[in-house]
Amino acid sequence: MQGDFVEAREILAQMRTELAKRGGGMLLANITAFESVDVELLAGDPVAAAGFAVEGFKQHEKLGEPTFLSAAAGYVAKALYLLDRLDEAD
How many CA atoms within 13 Å lie on the side-chain side of 54? Predict the structure, then answer.
């Protein structure tokens, strides 16, 4: 939120890589679906945000976690809305 998107992206990329090496799980799904999306939206890159949102949603779906899955769906919809992909967002 301080505007240092390069550093934020680097930190998140390192976290995603490390968590993937450890087997992924809920923390990887959350960082992908939420924090990575937030950074990209704040940076003004809804295309990257949508990519992370969809990836994070799929990770939550695979984990079978309904609580976070519904929140991840909202993040997907938000990113797709910003890309004017309204049918997909719905």
Answer: 9
DSSP characters for the chain?
A: --S-HHHHHHHHHHHHHHHHHTT--HHHHHIIIIIHHHHHHHHT-HHHHHHHHHHHHHHHHHHT-HHHHHHHHHHHHHHHHHTT-HHHH-
Is 46 exposed, middle or buried (CB count within 10 Å of its CB: 0-12, 13-18, 19+)? buried
Q: How far is residue 24's CA from residue 28's CA, in Å, rounded to a whole number? A: 5
How many beta carbons lie within 10 A of that of residue 5, not counting itself? 14
Question: What's the pTM value of the predicted model, to 2 decimals?
Answer: 0.91
Would you say 50 and 80 are in contact if contact means Cβ atoms under 8 Å apart? Answer: yes
Average pLDDT of the chain to the nearest whole number? 93
